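User: Quick sanity check before I run a bigger batch. Here is a single chain. Can you write out its predicted 3D structure?
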Amino acid sequence: MIDAIVLAAGLGTRMGRLKPLIPIEGKPALTVVIGVLREAGIDRPIVVLGHEANRVLSGVDLDGCRIVVNPEPGRGLSSSLRLGLQMVGPTAIGTLVLHVDMPAVRADTIRSVLDAGAAGAKIAAPTHNGRRGFPVYFSHACFDELTPVLQGDKGARDYIATRRGSLTLVPVDDPGSLLDLDRPEDLAEIEGRAQCATSA
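Assistant: Done. Predicted structure follows.
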């Protein structure tokens, strides 16, 4: 079994809006991300909330999710990832980490990364056009090393950079694995890709 962590606690300062509730094709971004995870086979994702958690809980159906609230989301996404790792079940071989601001990732991309983890990868991530994207998989064997080095908004970036020999890259034909809701102009591109996927 592989767990999944959805990081949805951030302040959304650059976006200027509460990211989990940003509508994508009429659905909150967090709803979209959870739906894609479930389509990929993750039924009970761990969702880390923080900034305006009560608004998110009121605006998104999180039935079946395992929820943890970061009381200090201003300390950066590393604090949220640390909380999420603590929620991973003892029987899980690892966890998939996905940000709420990446609602354009496709289910088949997630399944490809999950397959790499199931095949024994310590760390796995998709690549599109030579760029590494999300989600990222970490085996349970990484947790003891990863947790102490998590700092600020870097997340696991530095950890991955020093362990390239343990990183399995999974080529995918999915631009959505690189797209995040960081700025207002990103929303138009993500919604455009969602419309293309719907009409395909």
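The mean pLDDT is 91.

User: Great, the batch can go ahead then.
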